[in-house]
# Entry
Amino acid sequence: MTTLDFQKYHGLGNDFILLDNRHSHDPLVTPEQAEQICDRNFGIGGDGVIFLLPGQDGTDYTMRIFNSDGSEPEMCGNGIRCLAQFAAQLNGQEDATYRIHTLAGVMTPQRQADGRVKVDMGEPRLLAGQIPTTLKPESEKVVDVPLTVGDRTWNVTTVSMGNPHCVVFVDDVAAISLAEIGPQFEHHPQFPQRINTEFIEVTQGNYVKMRVWERGAGATLACGTGACASVVAGVLTGHCDRSTTVELPGGNLEIEWSNQGSVYMTGPATFVFSGTLRL
# Structure
C-alpha cells in the first residue's frame, strides 16, 4: 500500500487536494485515482487534485491538475492560487512570487501580505480557433453571437484564458438551472474540446454576479479563469469595466484587464486540513 501526504485548500469554495510532487515530473496518482480521491462520499472530496511538480524552461514549478472526473484541464485559476499558498507553506515563505509552468503557458502568482494571491494570468485569446469553437471562422472573434442550446437561443462570447470559456449575460443569474443547461453547453458540438460556461448578471459597471458550469467538474462555487474570461467578455460587449469585482457563490474575486493586455486576478486561497492518503 502506498501512502501520500496531502494538504487540502480551497479558493472561494473551489476545493482541491494538493500533492508535493517536486521530486518527479510524473504525477503521483493516476486520473482514475484522482477521480476516486475527489469523490465526496467515498474519498476526501474535491473539485480536483493538483500536483506541484519541478519547473520547466526556467520556471520555479510546474502545475498539473486532474479534475474530479479524471480529465486534465490546461490550468485552473482558483487552483493556481492554492498552489502558490501550498508552495509558500512548503518553503516557509510569507510573501513570494513564483513563475509556474502550466499547459496554458507560464502564470505568475504573487502571495501578498494580506494572505491573498494576485496572479498575472496573461493575455486572453479571442479568436475562434484559439478557443476552439466553430461558431465563427478560426481567425474571427466570437462576440455576442447567437447560439441555440436547449429550447432557447443565447448570445455568447467566447474567451480562452488558456482554457475555453463561453460567457452568457443574463438578467437573473439565480434563475439559471445550471444542472440542466450546463451540460448542454459543455457538450455542444460547436465546442469540439468541450467548454466552461459562465452566466453573468451585471449589477453595475464594476460589479457582476457569476455562476459557472465547469468542464469536467460541473457546478462549482467559483472559477478563477471563468471570472477572468467574464470580465474580458464584459469589456468586449460593453457590459462592464476593465476593473471589476466578480461575485461568485463562494465569494468575490477582483479582476483587472490591463491596458497592456494581461488579466490580473486577486483572491484568497485557504488551507483546510492535511492528512495521509492510502492508495
In short: The chain has two domains: 3-120+269-278, 128-261. The chain has a mean pLDDT of 96. Residues 77-91 form the longest helix (15 residues). Residues 12 and 51 are 19 Å apart (CA to CA).
